[in-house]
Structures are given as C-alpha cells and as structure tokens.
Specification:
The protein is an all-alpha fold. 78% of the residues lie in helices and 0% in strands. The radius of gyration is 17 Å and the shape is elongated. The termini are far apart. Belongs to the sigma-70 factor family. ECF subfamily.
C-alpha cells in the first residue's frame, strides 16, 4: 500500500480528521475513477453519477477495507462493478436490444463535442462499443490504464489467464471492426 493510501486511511479512521480523509481520497482518485467509468458508459452525466455512487459505496464500506490491495485497486473494483451493473440495468430497464444500445452510443460519439481526436479515435470507440461489457473493461484497463494483468485480476476478481484471453479476443474484434469499417 502506498504512503498516500496509508495517510488517507489514517485520516479517515481518526474521528477528528475523517472528513479531511474523505476529501483527500476524492482528490487523489476521483479523476482516475471517472475516466475508467467514462470509457465504459461514454456519456458524461452517467459517468459523473457512477463516480459519485462509487465514492458513496466506498465511504460506506471503508471500514471493511483490509489493505490487501491499494485504495486505487479497491476503488476501481467498486467502480467497475457499479458500471457493469449500471449497463446491465440500463439495457433491461429500457428494453434496449444490444444493437439499439450500441446505435445510441455510436450516435452520441458522432454528435458529441466531448470526444477529442480524429476519426481513428472515433472508430476505435465505436469498435469498443461492439465488445461485450467485460471485454471492453479488460481492454480499457490493459490498453488505456496500462494496468498489469495481476492488478486487473485484483480489480475484476478474474484469473490472469481469463483476462489475457479476454484481452486477446477484444483486440482481434477491434482489429476486425476497424479493417471492415
């Protein structure tokens, strides 16, 4: 566990500095958590809500944090679980077929001024939307967050071998989409 994590935990566990500890936790990790979620849900408002939910859930269960991983890894696990649950509920709640959901997200990518970059980046994001949620998550964690498979295993609760296979399949599907697009 990093020294920063230890300091944040000491503040949170102190009855006199608890609020300061929470602020430090948010300052330290909010941007990273937001970006992981945003890459999965695309829409800023959804990512913002899920980031807030992640920290609320973390605050409620911080006394259960044992320190076997970094706060970063623990928060990412909460964030990815919240995001995957949100995506499943959204598909079911609005009776989206997978194709309708992908069309909506692709349309958002085409018409949003939120996305930086050129057409290649837009095509990559569209290709990512075609992946199953868990493959998309693995791709983001490995390619964009540059996490090791061991860190990803801690976050997702999945074996290293399964993560490697998911990443491989995701890369192949992305390559196929980009070539055929």
């Amino acid at each position: 566990m990093k020294e920063t994590d230890q300091h944040i935990l000491e503040l949170i566990r102190s009855p006199f500095a608890r609020e300061l500890g929470y602020r430090k936790l948010i300052e330290c990790y909010q941007t990273k958590v937001y970006h992981v979620i945003r890459r999965m849900v695309i829409i800023h408002e959804d990512a913002d809500d899920l980031t807030q939910n992640t920290f609320i859930k973390a605050f409620k269960s911080l006394d259960k944090f044992e320190g076997n991983s970094s706060l970063f890894t623990w928060l990412y696990r909460i964030a990815t679980n919240e995001t995957l649950t949100f995506l499943e509920k959204k598909k079911k709640r609005y009776f989206f077929s997978l194709d309708d959901h992908q069309e909506k997200m692709e349309s958002y990518l085409d018409h949003s001024g939120q996305l930086d970059g050129d057409q290649i980046q837009v095509r990559l994001h569209k290709a990512l939307l075609k992946l199953p949620d868990k493959q998309r998550l693995v791709f983001h964690l490995k390619y964009q967050e540059e996490l090791s498979y061991e860190e990803m295993a801690q976050i997702t609760g999945t074996s290293v071998g399964a993560l490697k296979a998911s990443y491989h399949h995701a890369v192949k599907k992305i390559e196929q989409f980009v070539v055929n697009e």
